[in-house]
Write a structure and sequence with these properties.
homodimer; peptidase activity (chains A, B); globular; hydrolase (chains A, B); Alpha-Beta Plaits; six-stranded mixed sheet; alpha+beta; 456 residues; Cyt/Met_Dipeptidase (chains A, B)
């Protein structure tokens, strides 16, 4: 079977792309309270979709935060496997708006790419699954396996309530294995299976000096400058060789094995300069950019601000300075421990004359690694290769997906990460996009995969 | 004479305060193009004022930037001295608005202080002079000396066009001496004459990394972080002992003489902790806070920004990072040379993987020092003491007034700095204010001073 489903996708391509556009038009930004209603619209869109294509059950489940969509298809029979499909319908903020060539929430196709916030991360990839379910059910009348759908609305704000849901509704969400499509390929049309993900943690540093902005002529020389103090603090946390200088940060991290370095070097790499515009990469001393990105922990200042940002000059000593920092972790590192080390370091180097406060981000995840030769993984590789007509590569990546850690911790079920994004998708950035042909080939891959792992 | 003028001020106090409020209500922010019209309204206000009180001449003079107000009173006779009075009607931006207890451009009196942007710097002090001219002309029918008024609208953006005006209109602006009221007293009701001002220069550092914000999971470990790079650059320019570590920065600076240290220590100092809320001062190694502020050069980061500043987290490597820096200079330092040293230092320490650009601020001024026992200065001290009933102190201050350097360079005339601001005025900050009784005593001082230096 599955032939009819493939034909259905081809014949309904236009209608499906339009439906995807309707989905992307909903500005479901989870970090911004102003978009609370849009979040609900996006969830309702999915519930309606599942009902329309004949799922046995679909509902919007309330959480203490944004709702989660749960759905079930049970008609593949008791001897067919059950998959738990996870995705998220929330997106990152679109700002700065002025850097978008087209409106982030008015999807537009240019040069074979669909431009919109969420086109790749993750609404576009979620929609591919929904469309494949539709194809099977409309064209074949059934799916080759039982499906449980779990699509949350809080991934971009750390999946704040998902753990609680997965934990308390263990019976409802139980399955034989899980599939997640919230990742990318190492290069366009290069089938890629993630066998490792990084962990994640973060802090915010707030430095407070004078209780109001001061005239730099009247007080310069008497008062510690919060922005300068914060610069000294940050400079003491990572040196210019990209080595993190926070005591204990690397404790428990195994050095990257030679064979793993080889594996990483074999991965067809994108050109960093093409994808990012930088003339030179910068990575941890002793590691290549690819090795550091895939296999070593990182420390990034995501945002920093204080004082005057307007036109011209304003001769002040600012009252406050803030830095937002996140780290990507590898196996052997505990996110909570790392947060403590970061806080201790900041407090130890904080200079006199300012008050330094460290806020620990709730968002946190352990790193994850899976066995690359598990049958559910190898079957995925086969499906990929069939659809893209290219050998599948196995990689570790720097991204973090907390749900992966939680599903493993709570259900101990195998997790298959089927990503279809490309390095040029500009996730989290202005002009996020997704290639139309990856959309086609990705759905083809899913058709083959369900066919392989489901009831023949 | 001058008695009638004093009485006039008392009798018309209410009306004058209301008129001052009307002046302060005009948001004449010079750095923001959006306020171009308000700038003209403020200039027109002064021209009309001078006409109404009987100045012989008053006009708004166009410049390549904001207009300048020029006025003349010539009826004191040819054997009376002529003073050039300088002030500015433009103000600093009012942001952040949310930190004001009352609207910055809706003046409000609370606890004996008048709250408004410009109440002290400099519209309030300019208005005191206008009111005193009014008092003399309405009550006595004449002024004891000839007056040339020069009130610009670009002081807060570096007096960009004033030098050109002063230079090209040398005949028109020529006078026997100059009086400037754009400074403060070291403590409320403590008569203070500035005999030294600091010089000024500034740069903006722009660090550019990737051509768009990057996903920290996909690129962390491969790409230099502009905010971290900028933090390293800044940390290399001033150490934690508040010593500026830019090579050559202190060249030509004479160490603060012991007697000058004594003089500074004798100045009744405000409590830094009361005025700023900091628990501990931070000053250059080997100097007290007061010594550093009055007599040593400074380096301040006035503003810094890059990456995500919104609610929650955004896991990006930002594309750019910016820092605005200004320095206060002392005799022996050349602003242009200092700018070059700053730029050279930044370029020398700029790391690979980012592009660093240094923008030199146009705003620049040499430090200034005057002889404290010049008769025009001692007469000012007498007038102060008479009005405030307290001995006058002589101080150097950290502020910079480019016009002082230019008037000296172009006209070689004595310059008397009569400041009436107080340390709690919050210049350039939210909740700027000016004490009502300083307004009264300041005008009294001016009445006595014009009487002393004018024709008896």
């Amino acid at each position: 079977m599955s032939e009819k489903a493939l034909v259905y996708l081809k014949n309904n391509r236009e209608q499906l792309l339009n439906k995807l556009s309707n989905f992307l038009e909903i500005p479901s930004v989870s970090t911004d309270r102003a978009h609370k209603e849009d979040i609900h619209h996006a969830a309702d869109f999915i519930v309606t979709y599942l009902h329309d294509i004949g799922f046995d059950f679909a509902e919007k489940q309330a959480t203490s935060g944004h709702p989660l969509v749960y759905g079930e298809y049970n008609r593949a029979g008791s001897n067919a496997p059950t998959v738990l499909f996870y995705g998220h319908y929330d997106v990152q903020p679109a700002d700065p708006l002025e850097l978008w060539d087209s409106h982030p929430f008015r999807p537009e196709v240019r040069d074979g790419r669909l431009y919109a916030r969420g086109a790749s991360d993750d609404k576009g990839q979620v929609f591919m699954h929904l469309a494949v379910f539709e194809a099977y059910l409309k064209a074949e009348g059934k799916l080759p396996l039982n499906v449980k759908v779990c699509i949350e609305g809080e991934e971009e704000i750390g999946s704040e309530n998902l753990y609680e849901v997965l934990h308390s509704k263990k019976e409802q969400f139980a399955a034989d294995f899980a599939v997640i499509s919230d990742s990318g390929m190492v290069a366009k049309n290069q089938p890629t299976i993630l066998y490792g993900l990084k962990g994640f943690t973060g802090i915010e540093i707030n430095v407070t000096g004078p209780d109001h902005d001061l005239h730099s002529g009247m007080y310069g020389g008497a008062i510690r400058n919060p922005l300068m103090a914060l610069s000294h603090i940050l400079a003491s946390m990572k040196n210019e060789e990209e080595v993190i200088t926070v005591e204990g940060f690397y404790d428990g991290v195994e050095p990257l094995a030679e064979e793993e370095k080889k594996l990483i070097d074999q991965v067809p790499g994108e050109s960093y300069s093409e994808a990012t515009g930088v003339n030179e990469t910068a990575s941890e001393k002793g590691y290549t950019a690819k090795e550091h990105t895939m296999g070593r922990p990182t420390f990034e200042v995501n945002g920093m601000y204080g004082g005057y940002q307007g036109e011209g000059t304003k001769t002040i000593i600012p009252s406050t300075a803030t830095a937002k920092i996140t780290c990507r972790l590898v196996p052997g590192q505990d996110p909570v421990k790392i947060q403590q080390l970061l806080e201790e370091h900041v407090m130890n180097v904080a200079p006199a004359g300012v008050t330094v406060d460290v806020k620990k981000e709730k968002l946190s995840a352990k790193a994850y690694k899976v066995e690359p030769n598990h049958p559910l993984i190898t079957k995925a590789a086969t499906a990929y290769t069939k659809a893209f007509n290219k050998e599948t590569v196995f990689v570790r990546m720097g991204g973090s997906i907390p749900v992966v850690e939680w599903i493993e911790a709570i259900y101990q079920m195998p997790i298959v990460l089927l990503g279809f994004g490309t390095p040029d998708d500009r996730l989290h950035s202005p002009n996020e996009s997704f290639p139309i042909d990856s959309f086609d080939k990705g759905m083809e891959t899913l058709i083959y995969y369900w066919n392989e792992v489901g009831n023949q």
